[in-house]
Design brief:
- It is a single chain.
- The chain is an all-alpha fold.
- The protein has helices at residues 3-23, 35-52, 58-88, 96-126.
- The chain is elongated and about 55 Å long.
- 31% of the residues are buried.
Amino acid sequence: MNLEKVIFGFFIVLAATLNFGFFIGDLDNPIHHDVYELFAAIVVNLIATVLKFGDRTHIGAIHLSTSLVADLQLIAAALVWGYGAHVASAGAGITPEMTAKVVSLSGGALFANIVSMVILIAETIMQKR
């Protein structure tokens, strides 16, 4: 067993599951979307991105690009959350409209994470023993 591949796969799957956990729920209900889960998804996605830098293959480049897309979407979601919670509503909290925007952005990141997982599975199936 290759420990490097285990860690790589672990962070890809963890990034997708954390993102899915944040994404699931009513689109505009802030109670269903925890800011700490969004933060955890961002951190794990950034770790997964760093792990993808070492791979010099074509599939590695696709892995990196999907990870960068997920990072960009999640960071944008966090910025929208911060704006909605502290600037737009003058500290009154995040509104359903802002929650919908944040969740939509995290949905884009979730799609990128799913593409990355599909590539990982395809790469694993193609591996020769």
